[in-house]
Recover the amino acids of this structure.
């Protein structure tokens, strides 16, 4: 059936993936708090570097062609970890697929729907977490992409693959087909051996150093311009306004100011990822209440890093109180 890529679904229709029975979490094995802690720690261990691939997120328009790459793991790596720790009979999942109504896409003004997938992941004896994924319906692999995104996000609620959210991307040279000519070396904390030694990501230094090692020295304009897609135009221009009083990074003559702008934008990108995780844990209602208290009617109206920080910290506080 063609429903996997969304073309066969009517707008607004909800479709549950066929299952022999409703996903009702069984009681599962009795696990002591110590055992639960042990299993969660095992879930948090990074994947083996051989399972890591790199995806190009942004590219420069000028030559030489460069791209911002981030690491990811195929969802088979996630299922392999779950099977190894709990056996195939120790966990299960269910997907619900929904197509939105058609609306105009901002980047190309095309009218198209979105495929929205919710994944409910149950690990017997640990609990249930759900998360969502989405993709434009005119993508031939929309269903597959949204399903994988939802599943990985649900896994991250248990700690599996969560460390990958700490990466902000590194810049590398691309070939003519926009594929990386080389990929960055994973930091030690992102390997099982380094994790076992107690190494953990340091947002303020290790990640920035990894990205900076692959930046274009003496320019930084392409990297700053590429951040617009991640941050959204309002937050992107808000940071430029607050730090440099300019509309475009090309207007910044001082390289140290460019570096400071890029650091703030990377911090904002990390904040948006933390916000995404907070929404997965606490839901959208607390986020709406926080925005309303700040006089903001939509997340895309945030135009400063300081405001974003306030929203993220408050949402994380609420999410932690719910756990």
């Amino acid at each position: 059936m063609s429903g996997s890529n969304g073309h066969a679904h009517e707008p607004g229709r909800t479709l549950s993936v066929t299952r022999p029975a409703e996903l009702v979490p069984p009681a599962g094995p009795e696990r002591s708090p110590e055992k639960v802690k042990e299993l969660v720690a095992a879930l948090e261990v990074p994947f083996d570097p051989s399972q890591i691939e790199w995806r190009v997120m942004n590219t420069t328009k000028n030559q030489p062609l460069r791209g911002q790459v981030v690491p990811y793991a195929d969802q088979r790596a996630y299922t392999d970890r779950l099977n190894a720790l709990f056996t195939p009979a120790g966990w299960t999942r269910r997907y619900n697929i929904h197509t939105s109504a058609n609306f105009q896409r901002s980047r190309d003004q095309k009218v198209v729907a979105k495929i929205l997938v919710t994944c409910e992941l149950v690990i017997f004896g640990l609990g249930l977490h759900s998360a969502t994924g989405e993709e434009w319906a005119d993508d031939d692999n929309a269903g597959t992409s949204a399903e994988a995104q939802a599943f990985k996000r649900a896994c991250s609620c248990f700690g599996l693959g969560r460390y990958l959210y700490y990466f902000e991307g590194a810049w590398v040279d691309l070939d003519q087909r926009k594929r990386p000519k080389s990929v960055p070396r994973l930091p030690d904390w992102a390997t099982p051996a380094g994790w076992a030694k107690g190494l953990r990501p340091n947002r303020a230094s290790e990640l920035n150093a990894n990205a900076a090692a692959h930046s274009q020295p003496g320019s930084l304009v392409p990297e700053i311009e590429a951040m617009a897609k991640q941050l959204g135009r309002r937050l992107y221009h808000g940071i430029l306004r607050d730090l440099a009083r300019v509309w475009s990074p090309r207007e910044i003559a001082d390289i140290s100011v460019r570096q400071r702008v890029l650091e703030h934008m990377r911090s904002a990108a990390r904040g948006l990822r933390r916000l995404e995780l907070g929404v997965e844990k606490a839901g959208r209602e607390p986020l709406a209440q926080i925005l309303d208290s700040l006089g903001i009617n939509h997340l895309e109206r945030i135009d400063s890093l300081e405001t974003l920080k306030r929203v993220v910290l408050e949402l994380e506080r609420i999410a932690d109180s719910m756990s």
About this structure: The first helix runs from residue 33 to 44. Residues 1-21, 203-218 have pLDDT under 50 and may be disordered.
